[in-house]
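Late entry, evening session. Most of the bench is empty. Finally got around to the prediction I had been postponing all week. Sequence below, unchanged from the version circulated by S.P.
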Amino acid sequence: MPSVALAVADGVLHYELSVAVEVFGADLAHIVDPWYDFALCGSGPVRVDRFRLEPDHGLDHLARADTVIVPGWADTDREPPAELVDAVRAAHTAGARVASLCTGAFVLGAAGLLDGRRATTHWGHTRELARRHPAATVDPDVLYVDNGDVLTSAGKAAAMDLCLHLVRLDHGSATANRIARRLVVPPHRDGGQAQFITTPVPAPGGHPLSDLFPWVLERLDQPLTVEDLACRAGMSSRHLTRHFKHLTGTTPLRWLHAQRIRHAQELLETTDAGVDTVAAAAGMGTATTLRRHFQRSVGVPPDTYRRTFRS
């Protein structure tokens, strides 16, 4: 059972903390069994905005976890507590994968984990993070950065993106998308996508395209145009594009392309089908076309992706 430890101290942000608890601390054994062994770790009772937390373990427990999550840090003008910084550094030295949410990157920076690595944080604090940690390459334009053993995210909603990314790495994209639908989170936004990211589908109901999305997902192996989608939705192509922009943050064709890549990922993870078969099922036509688009979107070839998740 993979273990996740959430590092807390006075001054962490409650939103990012609750995102991590909701993803890793909820009982989701009905989706994946076993789920995560989750622990809240701090040096004692912690004040988080108007809330008071009672950690399950001390900060030394971080070094026993497979993954350590550091939520946002409220006051970036002051250095985080030395005991928190030391515990995070010790956990990484012990082999833990360490991920920060939003301004939690300042804790990782203080621990020296960003030196020589690419990183991000909330756009309003990227300049300060870069000034304070010149050995890091701070990218203000991405949702998150995955260096393998050190991951950082931008603010608020990007914290959820990173948490789902970790689930996807551990349990595959099909599970991550089920969690996303359960949480009714907005779709992943375009731009700055790290490897192994896909675009979840908006939850059904409550919007004009609620019937269109499942219809499309059942026909990914078929040639579909914007006109086909607009006809099915009973609206003009221009009207359809406006709704797509509002719901997914992208255009119909880009969304469709992302769903084809997502479906190819799931087939590569869960079946032994050859690349030609996967390409046809995902509506990519040929293995050559799939490899070109898959490499561009995911960052690795289909065969490498399959080996990564099978291992």
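Two things to note before I forget:
The beta strands are 3-7, 37-41, 46-48, 51-53, 67-70, 97-100, 118-119, 137-138, 144-146, 150-153.
The radius of gyration is 20 Å.
Will write this up properly tomorrow.
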